[in-house]
Design a protein that fits this description.
The chain has 14 helices and 17 strands. The protein is about 35% helix and about 20% strand. The protein has two domains: about 140 residues, 5'-nuclease (Rossmann fold, 3-Layer(aba) Sandwich); about 210 residues, Rossmann fold, CATH 3.40.50. It has about 425 residues and is α/β, with parallel strands linked by helices.
């Protein structure tokens, strides 16, 4: 067997994160140990997203058996190789590391391969602590983040500022159009600012059909009497109220109004305008799509406990004075205008003509986001809202979560719009806490 340029020892969590990782290392040999197979076997019977991910990987590995002995290595379609290492590597593990821990045994394999002459080994894991241990052992280690931005600073924000002469701003208001700067994405927003007097501004939206800037089409909209409080919220309402933008992502820290704006726009278009049949609201039950069975009561009672933040926003929308809100919120459900559902139960459903809101979407993996968005039926709108700074899934980070991945994947598509909300409007205390804590 020809020696590969590099060996990639892959942790179980990488394959559970994305089965396509099996074909992501075409420049070398992908190595998985018997411990990875054992962990996949442990997860495969689970009814949640972990179980489904495990079964996907096992099916792919089973299909590869026809190409030869996995223990000796087989050729992959991407030009690399795959090998399953079963024995002969534990003696390379330092004596003070517990051999009963699967991560340590996987690291032992990486260390064993690295001790071979002229070997180049990379340990790939979504587990930060496992990568730290690998580095301590002298093994090169990386996270698995295909196509993810290196940091949130590089993530598409959905708007930009553009300094222009005052004459351009006057022409924009007069003609309702202006030549767009280069490099704008579809539905990207622009704050036009007078280069001599920055207080003179105009809000514009990139029109993909004309290639020019145009005024906001829904700037006068006040969905369910909710008024935007800052520029970002103006942009968010523009996207939320435009049926031609079928996929919207809202990102920002706590208190920026992501969920409240989305619910107001949803109820306006369902209850008042009849554009959509109903609003479906869902939140991931973390970690990684975990079932709600551990909560007490019926499915509805379980969801009520989990969806409490959604009910808080609905109560504010139906009555900001918070007086007699129970009957008013109940009326929305009784009329069939709104439905709450756990992410776990969306799989397999077809959802036509719905306004679908996925809250806390930063806790979803890229595959989970794909599963949810692909459920949208004809004439539906999907909105994902989340704060990439508050991730509870242990195998996701600000760049690799499904929400961030979706933004990068869809930013050039005309049916997509995104906005980063960076100003908290909840309270001075909430704003300060989001900034300092």
């Amino acid at each position: 067997m020809a020696k590969q340029s590099r060996s990639y020892v892959v942790d179980t969590n990488v394959l559970l994160h994305e089965a396509a990782a099996l074909n992501a290392f075409g420049d070398g040999e992908l190595v998985i140990t018997v411990d990875v197979l054992e962990e996949l076997d442990k997860f495969k019977s689970k009814p949640d997203e972990l179980g489904r991910a495990s079964r996907r990987v096992v099916r792919i590995l089973d299909g590869l058996r026809s190409r030869g002995a996995l223990a000796e290595g087989i050729e992959l379609d991407n030009g690399g190789r795959l090998r399953v290492v079963m024995t002969g590597f534990l003696d390379d593990l330092p004596a003070n590391m517990d051999r009963t821990i699967p991560d340590n045994r996987i690291l032992a394999c990486a260390l064993h391969l690295q001790n071979a002459p002229a070997a180049e080994v990379t340990f790939v894991s979504k587990d930060l602590n496992a990568r730290v241990k690998a580095t301590a052992l002298g093994i090169h280690s990386i996270d698995y983040n295909p196509d993810a931005p290196e940091s949130l600073d590089e993530l598409y924000r959905g708007f930009r500022e553009h300094d222009v002469p005052r004459s351009d701003i006057d022409a924009f208001y007069r003609d309702q159009t202006l030549a767009a700067p280069e490099g704008l994405m579809p539905n990207e927003f622009v704050l036009l600012r007078d280069e001599a007097n920055p207080k003179q501004t105009a809000l514009a939206r990139h029109d993909q059909l004309t290639g020019a800037l145009s005024p906001l089409r829904f700037d006068e909209s006040r969905p369910w009497k909710l008024s935007p409080l800052n520029m970002g919220q103006h942009f968010a309402i523009e996207l939320l109220m435009d049926p031609s933008v079928e996929l919207v992502t809202l990102m920002g820290k706590a208190g920026t109004g992501k969920t409240l704006l989305a619910l107001a726009a949803a109820m306006e278009q369902v209850a008042e305008r009849g554009i959509y049949r109903k609003t479906m609201v869902t939140r991931p039950i973390i970690p990684l799509g975990r079932d709600i069975g551990y909560l007490p009561g019926s499915k509805e009672e379980k969801l009520e406990s989990w969806m409490e933040p959604i009910f808080d926003n609905l109560q504010f929308l139906v009555d900001p004075t918070l007086e007699s809100v129970g009957d008013k919120v109940g009326y929305l459900f009784d009329r069939g205008w709104i439905e709450v559902e756990a992410v776990t139960y969306i799989r397999g459903r077809s959802l036509p003509k719905l306004f679908i809101l996925i809250d806390e979407a930063q806790n979803l993996s890229p595959h989970e986001v794909k599963t949810i968005v692909s459920r949208a039926g004809r004439d539906s709108k999907v909105v994902l809202a989340g704060d990439p700074f508050q991730i509870d899934n242990p195998y996701l980070d600000a760049s690799s979560n499904g929400l961030s991945s979706l933004v990068e994947a869809f930013k050039e598509q005309p049916l997509f719009g995104h906005i980063w909300l960076d100003r908290s409007e909840r309270s001075d205390l909430a704003s300060l806490a989001a900034e300092l804590l």
